[in-house]
Amino acid sequence: MRMRLRAPEEGETAPSTQSPRTPTSRAPQLDMRSPELIEQRLENLKRRPTWRAYLDEYVKAHPDDDDDKGDDDDDDDDEEEEHVASDAANCVNGSSGTHMSPQSDRSSPVDNGFVKTTLWSVVVVAMTPLWVVVVPFLLNRGADFWPLHCPTFFSLYRRCVAHLVFVALALVVVYYSICKEVPEANPGRASIVLREELLEMVEAGRSCRAAVARGNQRLMRELCSPIAVDVVFLQAAITLVFKTHRRWARLLVLMLALAQFAKAPERITAALQPVPEITAIDPSFALVDEEILIAIDGKNLQPGGTVAWVAYWGCAASAPVDSCELQYPGVFDVGVVSVKFTAMDHFVPCYRNPPTPLKVEDFREVDAQ
């Protein structure tokens, strides 16, 4: 150990050399039990600040440092959250990617297409006898083994059977939209009826086009409304045939079948067509075997139409008017019709539009009061 000694400067007094054992060099002894020391310690304890007061004082003394630190902490927290999220995603994709990918594929809606679903449905249903033997050995297969994104064989089989059932129902609705009847069990007979009805539909379309060319509003309503309603229902049924692999299309097929069963097209057509209506006749009575001119008032009555009569007590009182015999037909012209009653009864007038090459007319019965 090296020590450097220097001479004392002027004005500097030399330190007094006293023996360490002299009483004057000793520090005064501290008495811990003295009342003064105890009182001083109590005062110090009273004045000692709490952690909350210390932190408040520190924040007030360093406002800038606190804001910068808070921003840095927020940035660090955001970066840490992004880092944790990315690590979690990587862990999921890396460690359990082989298990999660099939579930995510099944959870998302997958459109297999009508052709693919139909082909698989035909194959699966046609192999039903084979499945009875083979399925027990395939129950442990995973979801990736079965087609059409089905998790098990039983879900695949149910889906295929349901698809074929709805395809058949949609085809029946198409046939009914054209022929107005359910197809027969004999395919040859059903094809003949279908061909005849298609030809009639084509002729109805030509009649509608001729009415449009003539510009006759009445004929347009009478001839075009039936074919328009039938075409709309037919087009809807044909479209739904190729959408039966979807659930919403199956629901619409059921609704369309119920509408056809409830005769909705016929009701819509009847609502669109102008309906002839007889509102009053004058006179309201006539003598037997007397030829008389009866004035007929009504709506949508055309000159050249035919007016016939149905006996009320003789037939209409006990049977539907449509099944009763039409008597005393006469031509409606200039608002009157000539008739001669040969029996005593209460007669109901029936009206039919004048014949036209574009449409076959029928009588309409009206009970004129």
From TrEMBL:
Segments of this protein annotated with the region Disordered: 1-42, 58-110
Biased composition (Basic and acidic residues): 33-42
Organism: Pythium insidiosum (Pythiosis disease agent)
Swiss-Prot/TrEMBL keywords: Membrane, Transmembrane, Transmembrane helix
Compositionally skewed regions (Polar residues) per UniProt: 14-27, 92-110
Biased composition (Acidic residues): 64-82
Name listed for the protein in its UniProt record: Transmembrane protein
Annotated TM spans: 119-139, 160-178
Taxonomic lineage from the root: Eukaryota, Sar, Stramenopiles, Oomycota, Peronosporomycetes
